[in-house]
Design a protein that fits this description.
The protein is an alpha+beta fold. The chain contains six helices and eleven strands. Pfam families: DUF3027 (PF11228).
């Protein structure tokens, strides 16, 4: 008689009616744990898988920072009991809850741009980018004649860059700012492969990459691809055009009339004429008197020289002095002194003649 080989289906537990009706009991338990104002509306209930007479009630959380979370209350009923009791109250996230990212070990949290100049990274023993290198027998000893050649070839290191490491580096460099897609490369008129400052790398990367050695280039000291480029290429040139001069701001040859507005002078106060009705007496105007003019000094006549010869005739000198004094009262006085002084000149007579 044939037998069925299919496994029996797992029995789904039926929701207990007493436990499903204990909504108020579940809410009171959630409020007791969460506090007033932290428990929202009832989101529903469901039977606990694999358990009999166990029902799970869910309530929305209204707490700040817990959007999408739900207060979960588990109630159970003993066999032949008429009431349910609370077994557990816990806050669980729902589908749209804000959660922290999954745990990541500290050694895997660092990114290539996170390492500073003084930071030291731990050694990765099983780094997939590196492969086992060759070890020389006596690289540092004086008896090994091939020590320099081995060191130049990279031999003697415990690990060297493998195919995976080279492929990742080439892809990163070519797709970044060192490749042909950089803004400076798209604007350049020639590629780095024809530049005299391009120093190719060694090994298999030599065919695609090199180092820029031009201090005028923005890529100086960096790895660039052969089809990269910039404006500091050694063989490119531009036509230097004279810089256009802007028109002068100030024209010295043009005459511009300038109107100067003088400030308005204060109007003179009206003169009040004395009259019989006003009773205002005019103030006397002071009159400035002229200072007396000093008298002219008397003219002293020179004494005649004894024995002077009178053959030449007397000389005549006329002295005229005029003094004029003027001040604010327009007083002018003119004094004129005229004297005739007779001077007898000649050589003295010889007493013996």
């Amino acid at each position: 008689m044939p037998t069925s080989t299919s496994s029996p289906r797992a029995r789904r537990p039926a929701k207990d009616a007493v436990g499903a009706a204990a909504v108020d009991l579940a809410r009171a338990a959630a409020v007791e744990v969460a506090g007033e104002g932290q428990v929202g509306e009832h989101l529903g209930s469901a039977a606990e898988p694999g358990a009999d007479r166990v029902v799970v009630h869910r309530f929305a959380s209204t707490g700040a920072g817990y959007r999408g979370w739900a207060w979960t209350v588990v109630v159970a009923r003993a066999p032949r009991a008429k009431v349910a009791t609370v077994s557990e109250v816990v806050l669980l996230p729902a589908g749209d809850a804000v959660l922290a990212p999954s745990w990541l070990p500290w050694a895997e949290r660092l990114q290539p741009g996170d390492v500073g100049p003084t930071d030291v990274l731990p050694r990765v023993a099983d780094d997939p980018r590196l492969v086992q290198g060759y070890e020389a027998t006596d690289v540092a000893g004086a008896g090994d004649a091939d020590a320099a050649a081995l060191s130049a070839l990279g031999l003697g290191r415990a690990r060297v860059l493998g195919p995976l490491g080279r492929a990742e580096a080439a892809t990163r460099w070519y797709d970044g700012d060192a490749g042909p897609g950089a803004p400076s490369a798209r604007a350049a008129s020639a590629a780095c492969a024809s530049c005299g400052f391009f120093v190719p790398l060694s090994g298999s990367l030599r065919a695609v990459f090199g180092v820029c050695a031009n201090d005028w280039s923005p890529d100086d000291g960096r790895v660039v691809s052969t089809d990269h480029g910039c404006g500091a290429h050694s063989e490119t040139d531009v036509v230097v055009e004279p810089e256009p001069l802007a028109p002068p701001i100030l024209d010295d040859e043009a005459l511009e009339p300038v109107v100067i507005e003088r400030p308005a002078t204060a109007e003179a106060a009206p003169v009040v004429e004395p009259g019989p009705a006003s009773g205002v007496e005019p103030e006397p105007v002071p009159v400035l008197e002229a200072e007396p003019v000093a008298e002219a000094a008397p003219v002293v006549e020179p004494e005649p020289v004894a024995g002077a010869a009178a053959s030449e005739g007397p000389g005549t000198v006329e002295v005229s002095t005029s003094v004029e004094v003027t001040d604010r009262v327009e007083v002018t006085e003119s004094v004129e002194v005229s004297e005739r002084v007779e001077v007898v000149t000649g050589e003295p007579a010889d007493p013996a003649s």
